[in-house]
C-alpha cells in the first residue's frame, strides 16, 4: 500500500511540473527549419535553402549548433526571406541524406531556387565565412540583395583621408589606417540581414547627428565583402556594433538601437575619462627569445612542428581571452624549456596577413585555439582549463606516451 502511495505521489508531482517543463522547452527556441523526406523537395522548390545535414551525437555538429541557430534567427524572417536556414537529422532521415551523398557530419549545402545541383560549403565554420558564402550564392547572377543601398557591392570609391562626423564606408584598404587612432563606433553588417536593414537609416542619422563632434567617427563595414577583417574582430552575428579606440576593440554595444540610445552611448564613451586600462596585448616577437615562446608564421610553421612536440597558440592581439592567456603561455614556455627534451611552445598571430591562410588550413575557428603537434601531426584541439598546472599536465603527456 505504501509503495502505491509513493508511485501516486511521484506521478502527481511530475504532472504538476509539466507546465514548467513545457515552458522551459519553449524558451529554448529552435529557429532552423526541420526538413524531412516528406517536406524537403517541396520546401527547396519554393525558396533558397541553406541546409545543415547533421547527427545529434556528432561533436562538430554540437559546436556548430548555436551558430546555426543564430544564423537562422537572422535569416528566417517572416516577410520574403532571401534564404531559409534549415537542418536535416541524418540519423532519422537516412535515405534523404544518402540521396544527397552526405558522407560526414556536419555537411552544409546551399540549394538555390530553380537549380537541380546544390553547392557544398567548404570554408571555416564561423559567421563571417558562412555569411560570405551565402552572399556569393545569392549574388551568383549579379543580383544585389535588397537592403542598405549599394552595401552588397564591393566598394571602388577612392580611399583617401576620411572626414570624421560623416558615415564612413570602411574597406580592406582603409580600415586599419582609419581605426588606428582615435575613437570609432563601427557597424559590422551583412546586406541581406533584416536587422541590419532596419538599423541602416538610424545609423545614417547617428552619423549626421554627430557631424560636429570631432572626437569620434561613425563607420560601417560589409562583412560579406571584407570577411577577414570581421573575422579578426570576432564578429559572430549581424549587426555587431563595436567601440574601437586606437585600433583596439574596447567593447561590444548591446543596448537598444534607437537614435537616442546610440547617441547616449557615444556621449558616455567620450565622457569617460577613468576608463579601465585594457589588458596588455601580446608581447612583440622581440621578447620571444627571452621567454622561449616561438613566434611562428606561414613561412616557418611546418618546419618548426615537423620534429618533436610543439604546442601552438593561435591568437588575435585584440582578443581578451588571448590577452589573459598570454602571461600563462610565457610561464608555460619557461617551464617546458627547463625540462629534458624540451617541448616547443609557440604562437601564431592569425590577424597577420601572412598567417591568414595558415590559420584557415589549421581549422582555427576562434581565439585562442590551442593545438599540440607531434612530429608534424596535429592532435585534437585542447579545450580544457587554461591554468598553468592543467596546461603543463596536458603537454607533459607527450613525454610519457607516444600519443596524446
TrEMBL record:
Gene designation per UniProt: LOC101896909
Source species of the chain: Musca domestica (House fly)
Pfam families to which the protein is assigned, alphabetical: Thioredoxin
InterPro entries: PDI, PDI_thioredoxin-like_dom, Thioredoxin-like_sf, Thioredoxin_CS, Thioredoxin_domain
Keyword Transferase: no
PANTHER family: PROTEIN DISULFIDE-ISOMERASE C17H9.14C-RELATED, THIOREDOXIN DOMAIN-CONTAINING PROTEIN 5
Domain of life: Eukaryota
Residue ranges of every copy of the Thioredoxin domain listed in the record: 11-139, 149-271, 272-400
Protein name: Thioredoxin domain-containing protein 5 homolog
Alphabetical UniProt keywords: Redox-active center, Repeat, Signal
Amino acid at each position: 500500500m505504501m509503495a502505491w502511495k509513493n508511485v501516486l505521489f511521484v506521478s502527481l508531482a511530475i504532472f504538476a511540473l509539466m507546465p514548467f517543463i513545457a515552458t522551459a522547452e519553449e524558451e529554448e527556441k529552435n529557429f532552423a527549419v526541420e526538413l524531412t523526406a516528406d517536406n524537403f523537395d517541396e520546401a527547396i522548390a519554393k525558396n533558397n535553402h541553406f541546409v545543415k545535414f547533421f547527427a545529434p551525437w556528432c561533436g562538430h555538429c554540437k559546436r556548430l549548433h548555436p551558430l546555426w541557430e543564430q544564423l537562422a534567427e537572422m535569416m528566417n524572417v517572416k516577410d520574403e526571406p532571401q534564404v531559409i536556414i534549415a537542418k536535416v537529422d541524418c540519423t532519422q532521415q537516412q535515405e534523404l541524406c544518402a540521396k544527397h551523398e552526405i558522407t560526414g557530419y556536419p555537411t552544409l549545402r546551399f540549394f538555390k531556387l530553380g537549380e537541380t545541383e546544390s553547392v557544398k560549403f567548404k570554408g571555416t565554420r564561423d559567421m563571417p565565412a558562412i555569411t560570405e558564402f551565402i552572399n556569393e550564392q545569392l549574388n551568383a547572377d549579379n543580383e544585389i540583395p535588397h537592403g542598405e543601398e549599394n552595401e552588397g557591392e564591393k566598394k571602388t570609391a577612392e580611399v583617401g583621408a576620411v572626414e570624421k562626423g560623416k558615415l564612413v564606408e570602411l574597406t580592406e584598404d582603409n580600415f586599419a589606417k582609419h581605426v588606428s587612432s582615435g575613437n570609432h563606433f563601427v557597424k559590422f553588417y551583412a546586406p541581406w540581414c533584416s536587422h541590419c536593414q532596419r538599423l541602416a537609416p538610424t545609423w545614417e542619422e547617428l552619423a549626421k547627428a554627430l557631424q560636429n563632434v570631432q572626437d569620434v567617427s561613425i563607420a560601417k563595414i560589409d562583412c560579406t565583402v571584407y570577411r577577414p577583417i570581421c573575422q579578426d574582430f570576432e564578429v559572430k552575428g549581424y549587426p555587431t556594433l563595436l567601440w574601437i579606440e586606437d585600433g583596439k576593440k574596447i567593447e561590444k554595444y548591446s543596448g537598444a538601437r534607437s537614435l537616442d540610445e546610440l547617441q547616449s552611448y557615444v556621449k558616455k564613451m567620450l565622457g569617460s575619462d577613468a576608463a579601465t586600462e585594457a589588458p596588455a596585448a601580446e608581447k612583440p616577437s622581440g621578447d620571444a627569445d627571452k621567454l622561449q615562446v616561438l613566434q611562428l608564421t606561414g613561412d616557418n610553421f611546418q618546419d618548426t612542428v615537423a620534429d618533436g612536440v610543439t604546442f601552438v597558440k593561435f591568437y588575435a592581439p585584440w582578443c581578451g581571452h588571448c590577452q589573459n592567456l598570454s602571461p600563462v603561455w610565457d610561464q608555460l614556455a619557461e617551464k617546458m624549456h627547463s625540462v629534458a627534451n624540451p617541448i616547443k611552445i609557440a604562437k601564431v598571430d592569425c590577424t597577420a596577413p601572412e598567417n591568414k591562410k595558415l590559420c584557415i588550413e589549421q581549422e582555427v575557428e576562434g581565439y585562442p585555439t590551442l593545438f599540440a603537434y607531434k612530429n608534424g601531426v596535429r592532435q585534437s584541439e585542447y579545450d580544457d582549463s587554461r591554468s598553468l598546472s592543467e596546461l603543463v599536465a596536458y603537454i607533459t603527456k607527450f613525454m610519457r606516451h607516444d600519443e596524446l
